[in-house]
Each structure stands twice: as structure tokens, then as C-alpha cells.
Amino acid sequence: MPLLEATGVHGGYGGMNILHGVDMTINNDEIGVIIGPNGAGKSTMLKAIFGMLNVTEGDIKLRGESIKNVAPNKLVHMGMGFVPQEKNIFPSMTVQENLEMGAYIHPSRVSAMLEQVYELFPPLKEKRRQPAGELSGGQRQMVAMGRALMVEPSLLLLDEPTAGLSPLYMNEIFTRVKDINKAGVGVLMVEQNAKQALAIADKGFVLAAGQNRYTDTGQALLNDPEVAKSFLGG
Amino acid sequence: MNELVFFINNVLISGAVAGSIYALGAVGITLVFSIMRFAHFAHADMMTFGAFMVFVFTAMFPGAGAALGIPTPILMLPIAMVITASLAIGLDKAFYKPLRDNGVKPIVLVIASLGVTLMLQGLIRMFAGTSSRSLYIGERKEIYRIDVPIEGVLRPIIITDPQIWLIAFAVIVVVALHYFLTKTRMGKAMRAMSDNADLAQVSGINTKAVIMVTWIIAGSLAAMAGTMLAMDVALQPQLSFFILLPIFAATIVGGVGQPYGAIAGGYLVGFVETLSVFNWSILLRPLAPMLPDALEIPRSLALVGTEYKIVVPFFILVVVLIWRPTGIFKGKVI
Ligand SMILES: Nc1ncnc2c1ncn2[C@@H]1O[C@H](COP(=O)(O)OP(=O)(O)OP(=O)(O)O)[C@@H](O)[C@H]1O
Ligand SMILES: [Mg+2]
């Protein structure tokens, strides 16, 4: 049974439909990468999966159970974590408090999970008493991902975790994503650094104008000249 | 030295009393804003309501406090706090939550809270009439005169029993609030929701519970502030009218949505208010022999007359916002 299975998802903001029947399937332990032009509906798709906007048609299943239009705080209890593209930290709270909020539903696991997250992102340990709003962009991304990992999710949704990062930081984040995945977490991530992201992807989804354009393994999409020409910058 | 005692009585004590009341009120307004992003105008009427509840219970059991050696209104305060907190939750369920669920703009909630203000004022007048009442029923308000053990000092420092209670309560509330917000899980969740409500939900925080706790704190502190004000002065249905401006000024001056800012703003407004109506001529009087005859110290030398005291919060508001446009503690922009 797939970990996540979205079929024919329609949805959008208010009355306006952005997604016009999107399909997406991720198996346990897989990394899925969504690429596509700005405004394609990539973030909208992640929000639709995470119950943050109304899905009008189609279905979304987590391990066979429908999670269509289930509220985000319930999805956290079902083992999902989400790192939004923007505003993904609590700026006035310290790094450690940000992480603690991630494990809000499992207060007894906080200290054990803090250790694990600090191990994954050592810079955060040094900065743990600093307000997250005072960190650099890359460190904030670490806080955001760390926060989502604190509940030990089985499926992690990441929206452009490397946006605005230097190549070094970007590779660092991709390495961490691979580590997280190896630890048994399914990952569905939106990326603009498409080549590097597809390189670590088991599955790649190319979205355009709210529809699937190509769906294949990451490697196959990288090698597809059509995809390369239109979506990978040649 | 007599002049100094006069200053302590009329500025330090009066300012601390006014400041404590404003701080207790402003904390509630700022918490409601930080969690629900609207200015809750009915807050001052929750204060009157709380004081009125204390009055009702004190009238029912007038001697109850004497047995324990505390004023009866203080004994009744916890009950009134619980009732006012329930009222706050009820008001939210009945008026604000349906609007929130429909995703209205904050201004709609503000207008709704104005409606609630009128409703509460009407209700209180309907049951209590418009007269002014004392919360001391068959009891005497203790007034402590503390003699200063310095030769030549004739005036005592004067402080009343409710003023001592008020200042003590304010200190306890500040310490407890700090502990709650920085050390407890719910307090941190509250700060998280104030920082980023969407992310709080994404993190699995029960935002409905946070909203409820916010109303509990706001309601019970409102009852406390209203009761202490009514004990210090008197219970009047129009108390809310006089208190609304200074507590909103305190909230904004401190930085909207910042609990510590609300406390700082409350004391700032309280002290500036008392300083501005303080009669400086008494402090200057000892200098009289040194001054040339032409310079006579007038009998009354205050910055503003008592009757214009109500403009002082506005003045502080303007001055502070020019200096720091988002308030002392960098508030959330409305
Ligand atoms: N909160 C919103 N309210 C209304 N429309 C929105 C909202 N957020 C996004 N949209 C619209 O939905 C469409 C898809 O936006 P989305 O954020 O999903 O794009 P994206 O693929 O993530 O783009 P990017 O690569 O720039 O992040 C856009 O046309 C955008 O205008
Ligand atoms: Mg996006």
C-alpha cells in the first residue's frame, strides 16, 4: 500500500481553483520531488495534502485512509509533518522553543527528540537559546525542518527547503533530507533546484498550470530531453 | 521631608495603584490581540462585570471575610474571576467564534466587540442601576498611616488596604505570567500562536484550547482589575468608560500583542497620569524663601488640571509612538 496516494485532486483558494486533477503517489521510504514553474500550484498541492485548503474533488489517502480535508493538527497526530515555503518558524521564540513546539503533541519525547535533531543539525545546538528570527536563512531552514521532525513523522512534506541558500548549504540540506529518508521517513518535497533534487529523488513530478505534466523516476526525468528543455533550464 | 512624603503618597502610591490596574487590564487586551488579532473593546466591561459579581456575592455574605481576617470582596474575588472567565468564553462562543469561523476581517470582530460592550453595559445597568456603590458592605476600608521615623516629618505615608492587595496581586500576576509564558507548555503554545498561527496549527498545537486559555486569563484578570478599582474608588456602571482609554493606551504604548509591553505600558500611563495632575507647588514651597519676591509660587501648579486627566493617555500615546512607532516592546503591526 502506498504511503501517500493523491488522485485527481482539485482545489484552490476561495472560489478559485488552482489544482485541476493532480495525481501523486509515494511509497514508504521514498523521496518524491515536485518541480515546475512559479505559480504552477506546487505549494498549493502540498497545502491541499496537509488540509490547509479545501479539496473539492479527488481523494488523498495516507496508508489507504482518506485524509482529504482533515485539519492539519489532526494530520500531525497521524504522523505527518509539514515545512511551509514561507513563515516556517516562530521568530520571537528561541531555537529550542521552536523545536519543542514541533513535539507539542508528544511532550514526553521532547528531550530525546531534541538530541536527535541537534545531531542532525549541529549548528542549531549552539544557537538553541537565540530567537529563531535572528538566524541566517539557512539556519532558519534547519529550524523549520527540525521542528517538523520533532514528531517523528512517517511522511514529511517540504516546500522549497533550499530556497535562497548558498550551494554549500543547499547540498547540506539535500544530504540531511537523504539521511532523514534513510531513517525511514517518506519525503515529498517541492524544489526549484530541480537537477540536484531529482538526483536524490525516487519519484519526480513535474507540475504545470495545476496539472501533472510528467511523472517518472527522478533519474528518468533528468535524462528526458523534453523535461530538460522546458523545466530544467536546458 | 514633609514634601517628600506628599510626593510618595500622591505620585508613587497613586501611580503604582493606577498603573497596576491599567497593567492588569492591558495584559488581557494584548493577549486577546496576540492570539485572535482584534482589539477587544468589551474588555473594560468585563472588568465592571467582575466587580459587579464581587458586589453581588459580598452583599449575599457580608461578614464572610471577617472570619478569615480579609476584606469580604477579596474573598469573593476568586469566584468572580471564575464567573468572568466563563463569561469571556461564552461571549467568544456566542459572538466572536462564529465570525472567526467565517473568516471575517479583524475589523468586523472589533465592531462586534463594540456591540458586546453596549450589551454588557445595558445588562449591568439593568440589574445594578446607575448608582455608585461601595464594595465594603458593613466593613471598613482600612487606611494605614505609616509614620516616618525622621524628625520634623509630620505627615504619615498613607496607603489603604485595597491598594496593598492590588499592588501585591499585580506583582504575583506579573511573576506568574512570566512563568506561564516561558516555562509551561500551554504558555509556549500561546507565544507560538501569537508568532505564527498557521505554523502553530501545522505543529499540532490545539489552537482552540489556546484561544480558550486566552479568554480565561483575560477574563479573570479583568475581574481582578475591575474589583480592585471598585474597592479603591467605588463600583459604578460607567467605570468601564473611564478605564477603556488608559488601558488601550497602555496596550498600544507597550507594543500591541506584547504581554510585558502591556505591563510596562500600564505603569507608564499610570505614573505619567498621576505626575501630570500632581501639584508641584507643594514640592517647591521649601524653595520659597530663596526666591525673589516677584516670583511667587502659585497655590496649585499641575501640568494639567484633574478634569483633563483623560487626555494624558492620548498624549503618552502620541509621544511614544513618534519615538517608537510600534510601541516600547515592538508590537505586532495591526
Ligand atoms: N493564499 C492564496 N490566495 C489566493 N491565491 C493564491 C494563494 N496562494 C497562491 N495562490 C495562487 O495559486 C497559484 C499557485 O500558487 P502556488 O503557491 O501553489 O505556486 P508554486 O508552484 O508554489 O510557485 P512558486 O514556485 O513561486 O512557489 C498562483 O497563481 C497563486 O496566485
Ligand atoms: Mg511555492
Structure description:
The complex is a heterodimer of chains A (about 230) and B (about 325). By secondary structure, chain A is α/β, with parallel strands linked by helices. Chain A folds into two domains: about 140 residues, P-loop containing nucleotide triphosphate hydrolases (Rossmann fold, 3-Layer(aba) Sandwich), CATH 3.40.50.300; about 70 residues, no CATH class. A six-stranded mixed β-sheet of chain A has the order 6-7-8-3-9-10, sandwiched between helices. In chain A, a hairpin with a 2-residue loop joins strand 1 and strand 2. In chain A, helix 3 packs parallel to helix 6. The longest helix of chain A is centred in the last third of the chain and has 16 residues. Chain A is globular and about 45 Å long. The mean pLDDT of chain A is about 95. Chain B is an all-alpha fold and about 325 residues long. Chain B has one domain: ABC transporter involved in vitamin B12 uptake, BtuC. In chain B, about 70% of the residues lie in helices and about 0% in strands. Chain B has a two-stranded antiparallel ribbon. In chain B, helix 2 packs across helix 10 and helix 4 runs antiparallel to helix 5. Chain B starts with a helix and ends in an 11-residue tail after the last helix. The model of chain B has no long low-confidence stretch (mean pLDDT about 90). The interface between A and B is medium-sized, with 25 and 17 residues. The structure holds adenosine-5'-triphosphate and magnesium ion (MG). Adenosine-5'-triphosphate (ATP) binds next to helix 1 of chain A.
